[in-house]
Specification:
alpha/beta; Aminopeptidase; 2 domains; 6-stranded mixed β-sheet; two-stranded antiparallel ribbon; 7 helices; about 55% helix; binds zinc ion
Length: about 240
């Protein structure tokens, strides 16, 4: 009887040992499996974290230019039918910015969508000016379209300057737009009374791309031509920075 009991006990001990070993094997397997999964997931995150770092390598910009599409939002600017100055200026400004970036010049738009910077027009203009100082810009370039109350034959683009220092920039931009042959160059104008020029801390120009009521309408209403004008404006800026 005692021997039988002993045998039974030994059998039970054996089972416990086998079960314990089996448990250890299972736990070891689980540990290996989980650590493999964790390291695999972590490696995914690592590559994700490294890739944008490579792409976002800060560009070595030569200078910063504030590009200001006039008006926006409630303030539509000059208009005829469905054509608004605020849209013409934005399309052109985006083309300027794109071209400047290609030449390693950082372009900052005062607005990149159809919105005003402030409900109050005076504050709106002040906020645009402030961006020059905030971003240590070299130039401020504002883009507008001319209007005229009556039906008129008046046409052409003109560039307003802040001071003598802005004149070289205005001349280069004017020469490049002129080459497109869309309209005549009405030349440089005194822009000292214009808030975005007067209150600006850097050399600044304001370009009136043309007269919306008249023959300039044809190119002001053509986005592809506006892009060409934007590229020409950028070329004038690039020439002055290089
Ligand atoms: Zn305007």
């Amino acid at each position: 009887m005692a021997a039988k009991k002993k045998k039974k006990l030994k059998l039970r001990v054996d089972r416990v040992i086998i079960a314990a070993v089996a448990c250890l094997i299972i736990l070891f397997g689980l540990y290996k499996g989980i650590s493999f999964a964790v390291s695999h997931v972590m490696s995914l995150f690592e590559t994700e974290a490294i890739t944008p770092q490579k792409n976002d390598k800060p560009k070595n910009y030569k200078a910063t230019v504030i590009v200001d599409p006039g008006h926006g939002g409630y303030d539509v600017g000059a208009n005829i039918d469905e054509l608004y100055e605020k849209d013409i200026s934005l399309t052109t400004a985006k083309a300027v910015a794109k071209e400047l970036d290609k030449a390693d010049i950082k372009a900052i738009l005062t607005r990149d969508k159809d919105e005003a910077l402030h409900d109050n027009k005076i504050t709106d203009l002040k906020l645009r000016c402030d961006m020059s100082k905030e971003n240590q810009a070299k130039y401020f370039v504002s883009i507008h379209v001319n209007d005229y109350d009556k039906t008129t034959n008046i046409s052409g683009f003109e560039i307003y300057t802040k001071n003598k220092a802005s004149e070289a920039l205005a001349t280069s931009i004017g020469n490049h737009i002129e080459k497109l042959n869309y309209s005549k160059n009405r030349g440089m104008q005194d822009g000292n009374s214009l808030a975005v020029l007067r209150d600006n801390s850097v050399s600044s120009v304001l370009i009136e791309l043309g007269y919306i009521r008249g023959k300039d309408f044809d190119y002001l209403n053509d986005n592809q031509k506006l892009e060409k004008i934007g590229q020409a404006i950028a070329q004038g800026i690039i020439e002055n920075i290089n």
